[in-house]
């Protein structure tokens, strides 16, 4: 019995690793994505341009402009000379943010009066623009605080736990462990059965002494292996290449990768059982994957979504797995902290696998 | 290259039958775009309206209570109170709150002394950097409001303030710029992913050999693959624009003909890329994987749809110039929210044209006319 299973798995692995092209396909995209995405997937605002229309010429205004120019977010400052120019740079996306300093700024500041500067923000990219505005605001508040002689009644001390400098890469890499493995694992499982059906080898499998349970196990294992190997490569790169801190245990990471792999394989087999050719299987996995990534909490936090989408997100294995991986990397998760996310993964795996098995039985008769 | 309209029409008809007969194609053209548009439009909300914040109030004094009241009154904060710091830190670790404000037991006393020694401590969840930024700026807003309320005599604090005005999107709804961006992701899916399978399927099933033994020319073969999928893509685009403007309330300030032009050029590159993958790999499984890696993921990650291109390192920025979605995203964001700003549009149109010519040209070059030649 074990021998049959073993032979079947060997056959599946051979089918997966047969051609050098498909072997390369399991590794090359992972490496490419590891190289590009940690640098690309950032909501930080760096290297953007600030436009300043300084109508005042006084010392205070010049110092303020210099301070703004010194922040990391704005290595370039465009000096403008009219209101029209302000409109133009925003229209043409030459600057995310344009600040206009009023004529009497230096005089009023010296006299201790209140004075308001204006910021025009490009709402076409409201998130980046809001962040850029936040940076500018900080500089201006700091500048104003130094000039006022009143002490604030209480200081606000902000401390970022788990990621003191809010490094985006620390957030991206653990999430990539989850996202990149999703693609590899799902494609391998969803398309393999459809390929057999298209090539006609599926009938041969059915007339062999293998029961549907075996066939499914044979299809499930390569997918889990792909998830595990790709996941480990990315996790290793995160730790040793990108220096993301790893505060949990490797054992827990592997256990959760297996649970996640199982739930993915469940979806993959379900898609596979429902589709009659590779194109349908491909589109099916795509129709699953794209919402799974979007609703996982990677692009935007789950709590910002409306209730119906939050409910969908609850059955999205990716959203649970991302929380676990980030927890293991950054927040020192042990089994107790991971369990609230692990059991949903197992429940998803159990129900999708059972459903896939039923569909499989129906279609193989 | 000679072109016979009759043969082309026949081939196009054959291709259209293939599209219409497979129910999954209809799913892609009409159901998937709408589904994805809703998921992108409502699922990606970067605005963090109402962050969950824990408050640990160890001080029962007036000053502390006033600060807590101001926090609770903020429309951006959903606050939960507790007096155990450990419990709150645990909730932060589990992600059920995104920030914790701690007021120590001597807070009110220190505020009254007025030496500037009082401190409001804010812990944020650094594992979610974007949300952590929002939490910090919301609490900062509350902190300033609290200061202003303590000094009822002064209407506004002396010194310098900054007034913000948002152009194009005054309410800063992130949906308004994410929906045009997601349309470009959806069009990438339809253009590149679907076509990546088309020619590969013909090779796998052996029907390509049958086609090549007919008098069909290379141009006819290529056009017969492009025209039906171009029409399918345009139908999906129309669907997306209708849903975005009528159902989701995203403004469309540019004109339809420019939108049509931009979309056509983008579809040219997307279809070209898909067909190229299909032609060179001759294997559906491999072509599909390539299409995901070369078209779909870059369209999400490197197009500037969510992640700002200017914030990327120069080497990665250089790569984004190769991604047609980059120009499509920028053109759509401008067309939808700002209208026809020609300096932005012309650059994008030019690059889209170049990229369409590049991908279609490469495909034409790689399309075989003979079985033995590649």
Describe the overall structure:
The complex is a heterodimer of chains A (365) and B (374). Helix content of chain A is 68%, strand content 9%. With 365 residues, chain A is α/β, with parallel strands linked by helices. Chain A has 2 domains: 49-147, abc type-2 transporter like fold (3-Layer(aba) Sandwich), CATH 3.40.1710.10; 164-364, no CATH class. Chain A has a 4-stranded mixed beta sheet, with helices on both faces. The two termini of chain A are 23 Å apart. The model of chain A has no long low-confidence stretch (mean pLDDT 86). Chain B has 2 domains: 5-44 and 173-366, no CATH class; 51-150, 3-Layer(aba) Sandwich (abc type-2 transporter like fold). Helices cover 66% and strands 9% of the residues of chain B. Chain B has 14 helices and 5 strands. Chain B has a 4-stranded mixed beta sheet with strand order 2-1-3-4, with helices on both faces. The radius of gyration of chain B is 28 Å and the shape is elongated. Classes of the chains: A alpha/beta (365), B alpha/beta (374). Strand 5 (155-161) of chain A pairs parallel with strand 4 (119-125) of chain B, so a sheet runs across the interface.
- Biggest interface and residues each: A-B, 113 and 115 residues
Number of helices of chain A: 14
Distance between the termini of chain A: 23 Å
Query: What gyration radius of chain B follows from the Cα positions, in whole Å?
Result: 28 Å
List the uncertain runs of chain A: none
Determine Rg of chain A (CA atoms, Å): 27 Å
């Amino acid at each position: 019995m074990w021998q049959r299973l073993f032979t079947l798995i060997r056959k599946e692995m051979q089918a997966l690793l047969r051609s050098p092209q498909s072997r390369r396909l399991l590794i090359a995209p992972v490496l490419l994505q590891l190289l590009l995405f940690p640098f690309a997937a950032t909501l930080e605002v760096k290297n953007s341009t600030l436009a300043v229309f300084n109508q005042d010429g006084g010392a205070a205004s010049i110092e303020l402009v210099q301070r703004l120019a010194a922040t990391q977010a704005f290595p370039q400052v465009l000096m403008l000379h009219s209101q029209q120019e302000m409109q133009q740079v925003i229209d043409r996306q030459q600057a995310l943010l344009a600040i206009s300093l009023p004529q009497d700024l230096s005089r009023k500041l010296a006299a201790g009066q209140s004075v308001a500067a204006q910021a025009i923000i490009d709402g076409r990219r409201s998130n980046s623009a809001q962040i850029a505005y936040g940076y500018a605001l900080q500089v201006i508040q700091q500048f104003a605080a130094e000039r006022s002689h009143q002490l604030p009644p209480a200081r606000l001390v902000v401390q970022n736990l788990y990621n003191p400098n809010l490094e985006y890469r620390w957030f991206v890499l653990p999430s990539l462990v989850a996202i990149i493995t999703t693609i590899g694992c799902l494609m391998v499982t969803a398309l393999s059965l459809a390929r057999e059906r298209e090539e006609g080898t599926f009938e041969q499998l059915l007339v062999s002494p293998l029961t549907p349970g075996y066939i499914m196990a044979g299809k499930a294992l390569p997918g889990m292996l792909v998830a595990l190997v790709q996941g480990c490569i990315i996790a290793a790169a995160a730790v040793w290449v990108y220096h993301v801190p790893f505060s949990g245990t490797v054992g827990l990471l592997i256990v959760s990768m297996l649970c996640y792999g199982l739930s993915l394989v469940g979806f993959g087999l379900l898609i596979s059982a429902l589709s009659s050719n590779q194109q349908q299987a491909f589109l099916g996995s795509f129709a699953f994957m794209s919402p799974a990534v979007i609703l996982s909490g990677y692009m935007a936090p789950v709590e910002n979504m409306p209730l119906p989408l939050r409910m969908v997100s609850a059955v999205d294995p990716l959203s649970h797995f991302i929380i676990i991986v980030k927890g293991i990397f950054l927040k020192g998760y042990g089994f107790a902290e991971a369990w609230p996310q692990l059991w949903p993964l197992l429940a998803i795996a159990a129900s999708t696998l059972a459903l896939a098995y039923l569909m499989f039985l129906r279609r193989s008769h | 290259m000679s072109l016979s309209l009759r043969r082309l029409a026949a081939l196009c008809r054959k291709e259209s039958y293939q599209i219409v007969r497979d129910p999954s194609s209809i799913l892609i053209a009409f159901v998937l775009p709408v589904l994805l548009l809703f998921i992108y439009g409502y699922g990606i909300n970067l605005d963090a309206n109402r962050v969950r914040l824990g408050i640990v109030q160890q001080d029962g004094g007036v000053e502390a209570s006033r600060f807590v009241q101001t926090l609770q009154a903020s429309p951006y904060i959903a606050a939960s109170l507790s007096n155990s710091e450990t419990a709150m830190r645990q909730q932060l670790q589990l992600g059920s709150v995104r920030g914790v404000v701690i007021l120590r037991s001597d807070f009110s006393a220190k505020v009254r002394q007025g030496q500037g020694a009082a401190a409001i401590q804010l812990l944020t969840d650094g594992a979610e950097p974007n949300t952590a930024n929002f939490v910090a700026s919301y609490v900062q807003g509350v902190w300033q409001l609290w200061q202003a309320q303590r000094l009822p005599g002064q209407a506004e604090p002396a010194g310098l303030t900054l007034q913000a005005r948002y152009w194009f999107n005054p309410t800063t709804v992130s949906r308004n710029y994410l929906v045009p961006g997601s349309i470009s992701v959806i069009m990438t899916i339809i253009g590149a992913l679907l076509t990546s399978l088309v020619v590969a399927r013909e090779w796998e099933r052996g029907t390509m050999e049958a086609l090549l033994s007919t008098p069909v020319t290379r141009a006819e073969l290529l056009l017969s693959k492009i025209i039906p999928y171009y029409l399918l893509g345009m139908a999906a685009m129309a669907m997306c624009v209708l849903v975005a403007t009528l159902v989701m309330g995203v403004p469309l300030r540019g004109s339809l003909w420019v939108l049509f032009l931009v979309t056509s050029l983008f579809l040219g590159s997307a279809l070209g890329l898909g067909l190229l993958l299909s032609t060179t790999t001759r294997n559906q499984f491999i072509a599909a994987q390539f299409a995901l890696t070369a078209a779909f993921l870059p369209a999400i990650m490197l197009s500037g749809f969510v992640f700002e291109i200017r914030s990327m390192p120069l080497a990665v920025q250089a790569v984004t110039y190769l991604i047609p979605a980059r120009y499509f995203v920028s053109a759509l964001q401008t067309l939808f929210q700002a209208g026809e700003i020609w300096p932005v549009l012309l650059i994008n149109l030019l690059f889209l044209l170049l990229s369409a010519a590049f991908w279609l040209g490469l495909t034409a070059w790689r399309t075989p006319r003979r079985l033995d030649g590649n």
